[in-house]
């Protein structure tokens, strides 16, 4: 039988086939790990197991594509939230930028505390003081104008610890998780306690999440004609607070489906995880990011002023939610420069 073949040509083909296999093997191996920045610990295994069972047709826990909704908190879940929420840093900078037009702020709290860098007095002003800052710095302009202010600020502002743009301080493992879910026909949403119009201008570029898939807190907005141009004008009045018990309400109003997976990091996400995991589809998944890495990022939980994780951490032990130990479970924290 060998006589029918050109032996040198046969050898050449075998060698080329072997070489091709060697080239393809590393690529195939790399493609088997959708979460390369995660250590091979329990949280990674839980994520993969969940995705595999809800996407496998014929499985008793199979969930059709149109029901594969995953919701993510933003601050502390997708990007850093210490030493303060990024939107609060934005508001403080806005006070300083607007101060020349408001000389009365030098003697008026909480603006006086901001201008003097007195964070203790600012903190003492409580929710009322912070709300006044937000209303003053985020309203009195059109939605388009606000979007430009946010975009311009993010282009120049730098985190005080890492000296990098805030949009670079996103968690690489979570970016991979978003991509992994979308590759398996999940629709991913941000459900943030932060302002919906603060997050929308950059969410698609940074996370791959379009503005219509962002749910967040909002101030009242009204339609106005200005110089024969239709605009949406932002008013200094609270419309909706998308935090704690507000998150399930926001999900219902904006998304219209109960998620099958929810990802958070604080007590502000407790009700969102409860709404997602307690009832409904046969397979549900809840996950908390626990900030345990003081060297590469921050370590905090029960006593933190920002991103306190106390009640939700206790609930995780009862409900079976996956808790990610940032120090132990993530090979890498931030996206590379």
From TrEMBL:
<keyword id="KW-0378">Hydrolase</keyword>
<keyword id="KW-0732">Signal</keyword>
<feature type="signal peptide">
    <location>
        <begin position="1"/>
        <end position="30"/>
    </location>
</feature>
<keyword id="KW-0479">Metal-binding</keyword>
<dbReference type="InterPro" id="IPR023214">
    <property type="entry name" value="HAD_sf"/>
</dbReference>
<dbReference type="GO" id="GO:0016787">
    <property type="term" value="F:hydrolase activity"/>
</dbReference>
<protein>
    <submittedName>
        <fullName>HAD superfamily hydrolase protein</fullName>
    </submittedName>
</protein>
<dbReference type="Pfam" id="PF12710">
    <property type="entry name" value="HAD"/>
</dbReference>
<dbReference type="GO" id="GO:0046872">
    <property type="term" value="F:metal ion binding"/>
</dbReference>
<dbReference type="InterPro" id="IPR050582">
    <property type="entry name" value="HAD-like_SerB"/>
</dbReference>
<keyword id="KW-0460">Magnesium</keyword>
<dbReference type="InterPro" id="IPR036412">
    <property type="entry name" value="HAD-like_sf"/>
</dbReference>
């Amino acid at each position: 039988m060998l006589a029918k073949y050109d032996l040198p040509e046969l050898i050449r083909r075998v060698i080329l086939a072997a070489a091709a296999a060697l080239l393809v093997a590393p690529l195939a191996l790399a493609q088997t790990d959708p979460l390369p920045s995660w250590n091979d610990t329990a949280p990674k295994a839980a994520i993969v197991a969940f995705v595999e069972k809800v996407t496998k047709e014929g499985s008793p826990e199979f969930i059709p594509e149109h029901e594969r909704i995953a919701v993510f908190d933003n601050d502390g879940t997708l990007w850093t939230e210490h030493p303060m929420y990024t939107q609060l840093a934005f508001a403080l900078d806005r006070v300083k930028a607007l101060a020349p037009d408001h000389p009365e702020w030098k003697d008026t709290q909480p603006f006086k505390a901001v201008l003097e860098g007195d964070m203790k007095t600012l903190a003492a002003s409580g929710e009322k003081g912070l709300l006044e800052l937000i209303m003053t710095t985020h309203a009195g302009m059109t939605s388009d104008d606000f979007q430009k202010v946010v975009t311009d600020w993010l282009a120049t502002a730098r985190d005080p610890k890492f000296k990098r743009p805030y949009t670079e301080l996103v968690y690489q493992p979570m970016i991979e998780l978003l991509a992994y879910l979308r590759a398996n026909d999940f629709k991913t949403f941000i459900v943030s306690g932060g302002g919906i119009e603060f997050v929308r201008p950059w969410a698609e570029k940074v996370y791959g999440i379009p503005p219509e898939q962002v749910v967040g807190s909002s101030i009242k907005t009204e339609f106005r004609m200005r110089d024969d141009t239709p605009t949406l004008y932002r008013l200094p009045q609270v419309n909706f607070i998308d935090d704690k018990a507000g998150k399930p309400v926001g999900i219902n109003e904006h998304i219209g489906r109960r998620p099958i997976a929810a990802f958070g990091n604080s007590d502000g996400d407790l009700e969102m995880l409860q709404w997602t995991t307690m009832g409904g589809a046969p397979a549900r998944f809840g996950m908390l990011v626990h900030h345990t890495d003081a060297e590469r990022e921050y370590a905090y939980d029960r006593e933190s002023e920002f991103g306190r994780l106390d009640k939700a951490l206790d609930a995780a032990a009862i409900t079976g939610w996956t808790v990610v130990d940032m120090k132990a479970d993530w090979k890498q924290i931030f996206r590379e420069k």
